[in-house]
Amino acid sequence: MTTRIQEVEDQTRELTVCLVGMPNSGKTTLMNAITGGNFKTANYPGVTVSLLRGKSKAEFGCTLNVVDLPGVHSPVAPSPEEELACRVIEGNHERVRPDAFVLVVDATQLERHLKFAGFVAKQGKAVVVALTMMDLLRQSDQSVDVEKLARALGVPVVPVDPRTGGGVPELVKTVHAFADAPPIGSALARLPDEPVSAFKLIRELLQRSHAVRRAGRLSVGMDSPTARIDRIVLHRYWGFPVFFVVLISLFAAIFWAAQPFMDLIDAGFSDAGDLLLRVLPDSVISRFLAQGIVGGIGAVAVFFPQIMILFFLMTLLEDSGYLARGATLVDRPLSYLGLHGRSFVPMLSGFACAIPAVLAARAIPARRERLLTIWIIPLMSCSARLPVYALLLSALLPAGSAWKQGLSLAAIYVGSLLIASLTAGLASRLVFDYRKPSLLAMELPVYRSPRWKPILRMTWARGSSYLRRAGVPIMTVSACLWLLSNFAFSSQSIVTPAKMETSVAAQLGHKMEPALRPMGVDWRVGVGLISAFAAREVFVSSMAIVFHVDGDDDQTAQAGLLEQMRTATFPGTSQLIFTPSSIFGLIVFFFFSLQCFSTVAVVRRETNSWRLAGLQLAFYTGVGYILAVASVQILRALGVA
Amino acid sequence: MKVENDSHFHLETESAPARSLSEVPLNRWWRIERLEGPHEECNRLLDLGFTPGEEVIVTHAAPLGDPLVIRVRGALLALRKREAAWIFVE
Asked: What is the DSSP annotation of A239-269?
């Protein structure tokens, strides 16, 4: 009777299996093969690192809950990602409790990967080794005998090819069969912690069992495609030109390729808003829905194409193996600034959006370098600033001089990189002890041709996670701002609908006026600056609201706004607001200030405290204000209007 | 372990004194003699596979001369010169 119940339980109980292994062992590809791509990123409280979670495909018979843990280089001195993985492996994580581990082991680097495997096998949970990269063995003149290896290690070994899905059904079955058989007493679990003797034992195990056969050592990998590509990519003269070509193509794709999609989404949302206004009876509620809610969703969605292209190309570069080479190339200049080779990916992403950039900083192992990277990310000229700069530059420079505007924009981008470098260099010397950098020790994976399906799935998983994360705060703030600028406190202290001039936002703007006058602008620009905290590009649309621009399509709205800005004067006087000096001051302000609540929220989550996030907000916004006032006053003193 | 010492470059290593991996010529095999540097960092290097007795080769230097790309136990790892200087080879 009891055995029957036991059996039923065994069939219904779903095992939680964690994929563990060193970086580049093919874990995420295996995750794809096991789950059929049906996984999503899941965020866990505490240490906020995304884990991939999914269920194994039904056709494999038994269902497994599969969790893909971040790759671990070594349990010694880990990065936050590695720390999380180690916590799960050691059974100290409160939410993820694995029943078994699938150890993903690169067959071409058995010794290094088995050293880590020893750490996992010691935890008293069932372990199945999934041997990947078998197809690369021939390239490095080696061969591995799977049965002998399994016997030598004392744990089941299943060769898999995650790229084709070969061996995956066997892997799932093996995991199920061995789930209750932890490898206690096996050779793998008996490996010592101390690395020198552990590596010695592993080599003895492999040699004694004849599990691995090698042709000569000297030929290993010297003439492989990877070595040939590296000779160009890491070449003394060609290395940097290749790197810059890759970077420029990346930027071109992010900005030009995304443009048509962004225009489409932008137009779509403003059409949807107009439609709502026409269909619904005119009331406060319909205007709130059309302008506050639909407009808010539009403000987020318009960046979706850029973010997706960024994630897609980053995943592609990462997957092909080039990203690690790029990080190696720039490690020397970055470490001079107190940063790390791996800081390069967050900095690059920062030009699209600070939020994925801050998230990407997780891969930096040393805390100090990670914090410094996060510190300078808001200076990178993110794409939300682009519409603002476009508006201000066309107001500053006469029409018909497109090249001047382009040149100024390029100068702003290069300037943001230089200022960020300067900030990092100064901070690393003044605040941190830069003479004690962390270890680089970065693995350069073998180049592999890209696998489109997993890359697209990964892009989607990352992109939709971004939308959820950034979308909610941006929408909330934009809805609140709409309410603020459309309602007023009346005399009976009841909130009533109001025109812009008498709204709460305008009242706040008037209170701010003493601070705004030195910048050469009035309360209306102040309202724009405050609304930009939802997302910087909201500045443009709220300027259109406060300066009463009503146009049907975007083109006329932009032209109408420019026209209004050219003639706008301080109330009651004939003094122009938008003079070259005040526009320049606004550009300076946007260049420095951290006008983005989503970034502040993400930094708080990633650093687990308000300290860095609050300091960043106060420091950059303060510096932006001071420099904007200074530049306006200096320009005026020099005789520029 | 004994068997490995009988390869042909054994003669070469006999005469050469220990030098740090940061200053050896590229594309030649070296045997790690010892690690000498900060405790925590050296432990991590050991963990990555840089153990005494192991053979390594510096395959590339990045365009600015630093970091170095080193092959150890079938893996390519980028190490800064500063880190490679803790690894003494013969």
From this structure: HHHHHHHHHHHHHHIIIIITHHHHHHHHHHH
Confidence of residue A397 (pLDDT cuts 50, 70, 90): confident
* Residue A601 and residue A477 in contact, taking contact as beta carbons nearer than 8 Å: no
CB A104 within 8 A of CB A30: yes
Q: Chain B contact for A234, CB < 8 A?
A: yes
Q: What is the pLDDT of residue B8?
A: 40
Q: Delineate the domains of chain B, giving CATH numbers in brackets.
A: 3-89 (2.30.30.90)
Q: Are strands A212-214 and A142-144 parallel, antiparallel or unpaired?
A: antiparallel
Q: What integer is the mean pLDDT of A384-400?
A: 84
Task: Describe the crossing of helices A504-516 and A523-531 by its angle, rounded to 10 degrees.
Answer: 110
Cβ partners under 8 Å of residue A92, min gap 6: none
Gap between the Cα atoms of A361 and A356, Å rounded: 9
Query: Which token pair is A243?
Result: 């790197």
Q: What is the mean pLDDT of chain A?
A: 82
pLDDT digits (tens, 9 = 90+) for A168-204: 999 998 988 888 878 777 888 888 888 888 999 998 8
Contacts 24+ apart (CB under 8 A), B48-52: B48/A73, B48/A74, B48/A112, B48/A441, B48/B72, B48/B77, B49/A111, B49/A112, B49/A115, B49/A199, B49/B73, B49/B75, B50/B87, B51/A195, B51/A196, B51/A199, B51/A200, B52/A196
The interface predicted TM-score of the complex, written ipTM, equals 0.80
For tokens 């690393």, name the residue: A428
Supply A560's token pair: 């109408």
Give the Cα separation of A448 and A298 in Å (integer): 38
Domain-wise residue ranges, chain A: 13-223, 475-637
| A403 in contact with B, Cβ within 8 Å | no
User: Based on C-alpha coordinates, what's the Rg of chain A?
Assistant: 29
* Cβ under 8 Å to B: A residues 77-96: 77
Cβ within 8 Å of residue A96, ≥6 positions away: A16, A18, A44, A51, A67, A88
Q: Which of A384-393, A539-548, A611-620 has the lowest mean pLDDT?
A: A539-548
**Which residue of A233, A240, A325, A444 to mutate against B (max B Cβ within 10 Å)?**
A444
Cα–Cα distance for residue pair B63/A606, rounded to 1 Å: 34
- A497, A512 contact by CB (below 8 A): no
Q: Which CATH class is domain A13-223?
A: alpha beta
Please list every residue in chain B whose beta carbon sits closer than 8 Å to the beta carbon of residue A341.
67, 78
Helix (H) or strand (E) holding A184: none
User: Positive or negative, the Cα torsion across A541, A545, A550, A552?
Assistant: positive
Query: What kind and span of H or E run contains A378?
Result: none
Give per-residue pLDDT as tens, A368-377.
888 999 999 9
pLDDT surpasses 80 at A631: yes
B54 touches chain A (CB under 8 A): yes
The Cα A293–Cα A273 span in angstroms is 9
Six-digit token pair at A534?
């939802």
Sign of torsion over alpha carbons A29, A35, A39, A45: negative
Instruction: Dump pLDDT digits (tens) for A258-276.
Output: 888 888 988 888 888 888 8
* Buried residues in A272-303 as b, exposed as e (16+ CB within 10 A): ebeebbeeeeeeeeebbbbbbbbbbbbbbbbb
DSSP label at residue A69: P
CA nearest to B58 within chain A: A222
